[in-house]
Design brief:
By secondary structure, this protein is α+β, with helices and mostly antiparallel strands. The protein is 15% helix and 36% strand. Strand 4 and strand 5 form a beta hairpin. The mean pLDDT is 94. The structure holds zinc ion. The site of zinc ion has 8 residues, from loops.
């Protein structure tokens, strides 16, 4: 859990109580719940297969489906379409919800969509490499977006 030193409401000191950060000023009463963040994930299917990409900040050889944060007041489905446009340079033909998956290690909730598209991948700023994996060779993995990939494969 990310630790804050001071209360964002009254600037008082925060104390840890039963695994939560709580404002030391009882009249303030602020509690930092550290709720998971919703993250959209895109299983982008081109005629050749599904796009897996490497984020610049990840270890080498780690690839995943593209993800992104939902912006303030943004519809998750619009967020995933925007992310695919920004990070892969692809316009999407259709979008369908695959499911919602926990990613406790990152304190995230993954909202996964499958989308059909065609065209040429043009990587955005966050990604530096990609590969297109034929659906017959695609496998999920045991956490986060990998659960979504496996669920999508299983449902086909
Ligand atoms: Zn406070």
């Amino acid at each position: 859990m990310k630790k804050f030193k001071f209360c964002p409401h009254c600037a008082g000191l925060l104390q840890t109580q039963s695994n939560r950060q709580v404002c030391a000023d009882a009249t303030c009463g602020y509690v930092h719940y550290d709720n998971p963040l919703p993250v959209v994930a895109a299983i982008v299917e081109l005629p050749e297969g599904v796009v897996l990409a490497h984020n610049r900040s990840w270890p080498a050889k780690v690839f995943s489906v593209p993800t992104g944060f939902v912006e303030h007041q943004e519809n998750p489905q619009e967020a995933v379409v925007r992310e695919v446009q920004e990070e892969l340079g692809l316009a999407v033909h259709s979008t369908s919800l695959v499911g919602v998956y926990p990613f406790a290690q990152q304190n995230q909730i993954i909202i996964a969509y499958h989308m059909l598209t065609n065209g040429t991948v043009v990587l955005g700023d966050e990604l530096d490499e990609f590969k297109i994996v034929p659906v017959a060779k695609l496998r999920g993995w045991g956490f986060g977006t990998g659960l979504a990939v496996q669920a999508w494969l299983d449902a086909r």
